[in-house]
Write a structure and sequence with these properties.
It is built from no helices and eleven strands. It is an all-beta fold.
Amino acid sequence: VQLVESGGGLVQAGGSLRLSCAASGSTFSINAMGWYRQAPGKQRELVATITTGGGITTYADSVKGRFTISRDNAKNTMYLQMNSLKPEDTAVYYCQADASYGSTWFGYWGQGTQVTVSS
């Protein structure tokens, strides 16, 4: 499984961005997916997750009500709509996917996309 993020960039506080994560390869094996972020000097943290069918989503408290995670399995793509962005949202955002092959599970990561929010 290969994951490629896009959609990052520079935006003013209060603005919006939509990140995309395109999956390729053995996409049939993908189960839950998620977005993580890592700010300079900080540990990588979970932003949001979504189940295989998209029916269940979870969010970090810091982004609840502002970010929305979704996926289009027909397009093998996951999204993160980010509204009301704050300078503290500045980070590299990573796409993550869990894939299963029988009883064996693997975790895959994208290369990351930079999001910078100016005050």
